[in-house]
Amino acid sequence: MRRRWGVAFGLAVVLGASVVLVAPSGAAPSGPDALRVDLDDILADQRLNGSHTGVVVRDPATDEVLYSRQAADRATPASNAKLLTSAAALEALGPEYRFRTDVVTDAPQLGPVLSGDLYLRGTGDPTLLAADYDRLAEQVAAAGIRLVRGRLLTDSSWFDDVPLGTGWAWDDEPYYFAAPVSALTVAPDADFDAGTAIVRVSPTAEGRPAAVQLEPATGVVQIDNRTTTSAADGEPDVTVEREHGGSRVVVSGTVPAGAQPFEDFTTVPNPAGYAADVFARALTAHGVTIRGTGEGTAPAGGRELASRHSIPLRELLVPFLKLSNNGHAEVLVKAMGREVRGDGSWSAGLEVLTDKLSRLGVDPAVLRMVDGSGLSTMDQVTPEQLAVLLDNARERPWFRSWYDALPVAGVADRMVGGTLRNRMAGTAAENNVHAKTGSMTGVTSLSGYVTTANGRELVFSVVFNDFLTSSPKDLEDAIAIRLAEYNGADDQPRGRVHVPQSRTPPDDPSTRVDESTLECPWVKAC
């Protein structure tokens, strides 16, 4: 494992945090010097005036630092934090790790009657769909049970009962990128957006309220329908918002007559109760009657009636990293804490994360993580340490799964291109750059791998903080493209790199967040 930072700048010298070129009089820069000229030019953009601009480019084969600017200064990484969480989880849990969900009882069964309680016990699986709960119910029915004289009790004790991360904004609570975390939950879609439900708004007759449904059907949130069906050929204008701290979801606005249904997400305040509700409905559909739901701890040594194992972690990495799923990061942190320390909490999990990252060369003295997703603005890391992780991860047996799960620039398939599918297409970076994106208000980041024109694989990290203008993601792209064009010792200055326009999610002024500053999957724009 490499832990040293070789500095082979040739005629360049490093003064503080900036790189200054020293070249013979009249000589045009070439090789690494030419690259630094162009990166300096990209970073001279006035949108970065007064902001934090952290950039590092490294050649892992030689330990040469090709470029460095504020690389050792801490910054908020946004979703680049998921690089840290995913690597630590692979170290702590292993690529074959699976979440398990069980249905157990200690009650006697006499024919079709279970004379006691039924327990639904979870370990944090974020991939449980309504169809999976249906299959669990089918297994219970196959055991011959038709009447449960007790209740269906949820056991979510594998994790603690803290649902939201440290430093998360209260006004993010309704949005699905800030869904509560629990050892028992439900995902409404194949992206595995656990802890949320889809709100489907369908037009009726013009002037009448639209029809509002939840997918999956559940009674744990209450819909306050304030919608209207508008004239045909218009555009939908619908707002979905769960009230802070409550279970009422206000759906307002208009949807045009004859239009396709409008869909949005709402978070669910009690994920375990949500799981109980969905499972209870599935039991009823399979002819099993229960007498209510509640919470409880499954008895040790209880009889197993049904079980499900999730996909392995190496497969979960794909929706996790491609689509920058916050919930996946947080359940992995708590799972690390539970499996290694016997404590399914953020604090225990982050201790494990820090320990595993230190074994990957990341210096814990310059790292602060308070969650796993990067949603908290309290998270702090340096571009230098992100690059160290990217370098040293290459030596791990799980590296190929991790590398393949990173978003790939310009590839249209969302489960390949992910958050980079709409960026850098038609350039040397297309189908080349594998990197993790990150964004929130005043923060954008891009860190990963790029193969140069002369076949070298470089690691790079770009973290911009505290800009007040529109997001400078195009500058990240320009850096990545320029690295893809780099030609080693034969390299020549190219001037400003042309960056094709990417599809940035527009801001919806009716919401409390600026969607244009968020990861594109958080607003389903990629």
UniProtKB/TrEMBL annotation:
Keyword annotations: Carboxypeptidase, Hydrolase, Protease, Signal
Source organism superkingdom: Bacteria
Keyword Disulfide bond assigned: no
Signal peptide: 1-22
GO molecular function: serine-type carboxypeptidase activity
A GO biological-process term: proteolysis
Disordered: annotated span: 490-516
SUPFAM superfamilies attached to this UniProt entry: beta-lactamase/transpeptidase-like
Biased composition (Basic and acidic residues): 505-515
InterPro entries registered for this protein in UniProt: Beta-lactam/transpept-like (IPR012338), Peptidase_S13 (IPR000667)
Family: Belongs to the peptidase S13 family.
PANTHER family the UniProt entry points to: D-ALANYL-D-ALANINE CARBOXYPEPTIDASE, PENICILLIN-SENSITIVE CARBOXYPEPTIDASE A
Protein name per the record: D-alanyl-D-alanine carboxypeptidase/D-alanyl-D-alanine-endopeptidase (Penicillin-binding protein 4)
UniProt source species: Saccharopolyspora spinosa
Taxonomic lineage: Bacteria, Bacillati, Actinomycetota, Actinomycetes, Pseudonocardiales
